[in-house]
Amino acid sequence: MSGRAPRIAMLGGTFDPVHLGHLRSAVELREALALDRVHMIPVHVPPHRAAPGIAAGDRLAMLAAGIGDTPGLLADDREIRRSGHSFSVDTLASLREEYGEQARLVMAVGHDAFLGLPQWHQYQRLLSLAHVVVLDRPDHAAPLAPELTALIAGREVATAEALMSAPAGGVLRLSLPSRMAIAATEVRRRLQRGQSVRYLLAEATERYIAAQGLYRETTAGADES
Fold first, then answer.
1. pTM of the predicted model as reported, rounded to 2 decimal places
2. 72: phi > 0 → left, psi -120 to 50 → alpha, else beta; which?
3. More reliable by pLDDT, 46 or 32
4. What is the four-CA torsion angle of 137, 95, 35, 138, rounded to 10 degrees?
């Protein structure tokens, strides 16, 4: 990362379990924005959904197994180490402190999460800490809430280069090439039924799940795609 300000992304989720859609999106996000690192961060206690049925430590281990030696992807435990709800604004503040004021810091969110941004804790602070990159779904369109329209007014840019001209404050809509339509909900159902999840999960993640006996019975957990 020498010679220029580091380019860092935060990609959060329950990762219950992490699947190839998550991992491929992280790889393509890194390529599209020429990022140095993508911190994949399992949420500990989600503020806006039911707690996952699988312990945070297991979700982190599944993520680390899935990432393996993939360059630039990191399984980050900082939200698990924090007590209480996992607020993105606190995670971004932690990353900003770690990488410095000139780092190009990105929070990548799916389109559905982006629409709900005004319900997030201290959402007005998010763009002072990072850029927001919206991973677009071409088949999904919905009007923006007035609060969200006001938040992003004058902040949208058209290219990664324009986004990276400043440390924070921009909004970029990004369509990734693969857009693998894998739903963690369906993966859990298949695991609970003893059905094959081959080519939905990384082999190392699948081995971890089998070794630990995870998802063998119906567990509580929010839907995640």
1. 0.92
2. left
3. 32
4. 0
